Structures
1.
Amino acid sequence: MLQVNSDHPTDADVDRLDPYAFMAVIGKRVIHPGGRRSTREMLALAGLEPGQRVLDVGCGVATTAIEVARRFGCHVTAVDIDPLMLARASANVRASGVGTVAVAKADIQALEFADDAFDRVLIEAVTMFVDRRLAVREVVRVCKLGGRVLDHEFIYRRTPTAEIRRIFEGEVCPGIRFDTVADWLALYQAAGLSSLQQTSGPFSMMTPLGMLRDEGIGNLVAMTVRVAARRAYRRKMAWLMSRMLRVLPFLGYVVLVGTKPTADSSGRLTSA
Ligand SMILES: C[S@@+](CC[C@H](N)C(=O)[O-])C[C@H]1O[C@@H](n2cnc3c(N)ncnc32)[C@H](O)[C@@H]1O
């Protein structure tokens, strides 16, 4: 993990930042493939209620964690592995005035929470960057019996060419691993979730309209000014956009939800 001063990265740091860490540095608040639309879909599937304990894994700058606490009255634990993201998340939680979001460091592949600790576990654009089987096992483990796990990740909407895979999986997000909706469903089914449902749609996070919808005109202008004012940011953005424009038509998002089955009196597993 690259250690970067969240407020004042050097030019060399900027060059080496992951695309999503770069997005956080320039002030982007929504850093997942389906943008706010997919978060809305995810929250509609979550069945959130006041007082529930919710874990947001790989919370980034805590935009969704704050929304869940504010709109639904849940107690949210927002975790991430990256100190840069944790610094931004903590600052955003403080600025929001919401008192029911706790920010902490954690690795999705080895969560330091007890089994069955959370009513809901939310993941947006994280599982695909790590060992997916370990991560899926962990998020299911910490979810209560009868609770729900919701994950929102990239998919290919069209079969990618070798060149598209090379650009996206090799250059833009080295090590990222995802495929189709069926592939994600199979992963969670194998981890024991039942009643799986999904929605999917196009990648919108870095399209002009998606940026406008997700960030609003005020933050979009602020981000544009920030990028324009620094050569290292302009260079990074040009590098990123030249590649994203090529892969964009192939990309989409999936939001999936599943229930962790409860053990009924006969010892069989059933979904709540
Ligand atoms: C694409 S960003 C998504 C951020 C946030 N969920 C959102 O939707 O705006 C991916 C996030 O996953 C975090 N991450 C990557 N590897 C992780 C790991 N092993 N454990 C926890 N978080 C991780 C990154 O630091 C980053 O904040």
2.
Amino acid sequence: MAEDRKPDSSKKEEEQDRKIRLVPNKDEQYKPMKATITCGKCGKEWEAVLQPCVNISLHPDEKAKVLDGSFFHRVCPSCGETISVFYPCLYDDMQKALMIYLLPEDTEKALEALNAQQKNWSPDMLKAAKICKMRAVGSLIQLVEKIKIFDEGLDDRYVELTKPFIFAQFQKAHPEVEGIAALYEKQNGKNGYTIFCKDGKQFWAEIPEGVYEEVERIFKDEVEKKTTTEYEMIGPGWAHDKIATLMGKSE
Ligand SMILES: [Zn+2]
């Protein structure tokens, strides 16, 4: 009926909204779930409510809680001990069109199951997924790394591809330690990596000027040739494969 028709402007907005609709509709929303938690200190069991999605566009205050880990803290009602509870949880930043799924247990299998669910997605969700950066990570430390990378306006794929080069350089300069992992970290306004060593020592290595851009130039075609609507694990394993592919091609 005529009375029910929306004014043109709001109709337009709605259409616009539909084009890049990143807000899941009602049945696609992530409902809080309950889980039984056992306190590691006193053994008390209780039922806690877990939020399977952090939408930092709708709840900006929750971003800091993810970054400092307190989003995953639960307090034992019996002894007051703070426990970190990790579970599958989606970090959703609509402004950046960024969705990062934390899959702390059996990450690869969980990721496969998650991507298989896409056949149940609405056309809107699939459309949104095409313009979204969709990532999967196995730990909070990796989730935090991703958030920091995208906060700096960098592309995590080139950050991962730059990592092995800086890591190798670092190892050459410090043969006395054994580096085991590197995580993106900005220090004094410069992009670089915190390098974790086997003996517990930590170092920070800068990405020299122009290196990230050079890596982007070399890998751009290989990295951006395919658009996927799946959650992807963009980490050292992924970078290793990409580098191997490109080196195989140049042989
Ligand atoms: Zn307790």
